[in-house]
Write a structure and sequence with these properties.
By secondary structure, the chain is mainly alpha-helical. The chain is built from 18 helices and no strands.
Length: 399
């Protein structure tokens, strides 16, 4: 029995630091996901206009882009353990602001800090997995990271929906922010058990120099990824409004739809990762991009709860090759600067894509159909670009 457990741990890449990272993910993301999907409805409820809601999506992506770059540099310079502590404290400060003040301005200011954990910690997380497991298990380690993230994504919206249903929109959202604070504090205690990185000399590379050293295959992946994220982000903040205001589902039902999405993603991660670490990575990414592209079209034609369930299954399937894509980024990163390379990739991608959510606000004013089909066009362009110009990593695969 014990030998079987050891083999399972080895197969799943559950080394000490990776396991502790997964505990942090459960804690921090559960708090974050209790409120994230409902913020557009919250902003609308406290008097925010459609453009302010679009601005929320813009700021969410812009800050994700902004924090990714310093996140990569902080992770390489301070080490993962110290970096995660900094990220936790920043998030707690942002949540406190959002709890105290009831206005869209307070949400936007709070986001300057609590959006940091997701964006800043991602390069550190990917670097930690890569260092702990090596290329042989990179996709599997990232898949475990992605699976664990999906459970909070399933649980969080359900908790948030219950809070809103029982305490009202404003109080429910503030209680969700409070839950996030408590879970961040708990996470600080857990991350003290993480082994610190080995001290080493860090090569000084500014972002411009780092970009010049990017592999051409990584740059092509980035271009296609930008177009695919336009497909995702143009309708992103309006999905909850479409479901609640147009299809007339309640917040708890929407939370269950999100759970369906995340469960679908979780079920496919491990089988796909097992093949991805042994086979050419490109087809996995292409399939993922196709699911991104068709989701907004299917959502537009979903006019009852049963069809919405199908749409959110498709939304879950878009995670089919996401760990594979992240593994490609790490494998093609500048050697010795993996966290910084990962951070720069996301900085460039999300800085450009932050415009998509703002654009989505204007397209939504013209009509939901225009918003959803514009997103699909961007997705088709990104998929086609990667099919033509995308390449695998040409890394040696392992049996």
């Amino acid at each position: 029995m014990e030998s079987t457990l050891i083999k399972v741990k080895e197969y799943l890449g559950l080394k000490r630091n990776v396991a502790i990272l997964l505990v942090l993910i459960i804690l921090i993301y559960t708090g974050e996901k209790t409120w994230e999907r409902f913020v557009p409805e919250y902003l609308e409820g406290i008097g925010g206009s459609t453009l302010i809601i679009g601005g929320f999506g813009f700021l969410l992506n812009f800050l994700g882009a902004f924090w990714s770059l310093p996140g990569g540099y902080i992770a390489d310079w301070m080490g993962n353990k110290k970096a995660f502590l900094v990220f936790d404290l920043m998030a707690i400060g942002g949540y406190i602001i959002a709890v105290i003040f009831t206005s869209w301005i307070a949400v936007f200011i709070g986001m300057l800090f609590f959006s940091a954990w997701n964006a800043v910690s991602l390069p550190a997380s990917m670097s930690l997995i890569s260092k702990s497991l090596g290329n042989k298990k990179t996709a599997m380690g990232i898949s475990m990271h992605s699976i664990i993230r999906r459970f909070p994504m399933m649980l969080g919206p359900i908790i948030g929906g219950v809070m809103i249903t029982n305490f009202g929109l404003v109080t429910g959202i503030k209680l969700s922010f409070g839950i996030s604070i408590l879970l961040c504090i708990t996470g600080i205690f857990f991350q003290q058990k993480m082994r610190p990185d080995e001290e080493k000399v860090i090569e000084k590379i500014n972002p411009v120099q780092l970009w010049k050293r990017f592999d051409k295959k990584l740059k092509n992946l980035l271009i296609s990824d930008i177009l695919i994220r336009f497909c995702e982000q143009i309708p992103y903040v309006f999905v909850v409004i479409w479901c609640l205001d147009f299809i007339k589902v309640n917040p708890e039902q929407f939370g269950l739809l999100t759970a369906v999405e995340m469960l679908t993603a979780a079920l496919i991660y491990i089988p796909v990762a097992g093949f991805s670490d042994r086979l050419e990575r490109k087809p996995f990414v292409v399939i993922t991009f196709i699911f991104f592209t068709v989701f907004p079209v299917i959502l537009y034609y979903s006019h009852n709860y049963l069809f919405l369930i199908f749409a959110f299954i498709i939304r879950g399937l878009k995670e089919f090759g996401e760990p594979t894509r992240k593994a490609m980024i790490l494998e093609l990163s500048v050697e010795g600067a993996e966290a910084r390379s990962f951070g720069l990739y996301y900085f460039i991608r999300d800085m450009i894509v932050s415009l998509a959510a703002f654009l989505g606000g204007f397209l939504w004013v013209l009509g939901p159909g225009i918003n959803f089909f514009s997103a699909a066009i961007a997705g088709a362009a990104g998929t086609l670009y990667f099919v033509i110009f995308g390449r695998g990593t040409d890394k040696v695969k392992f049996n």
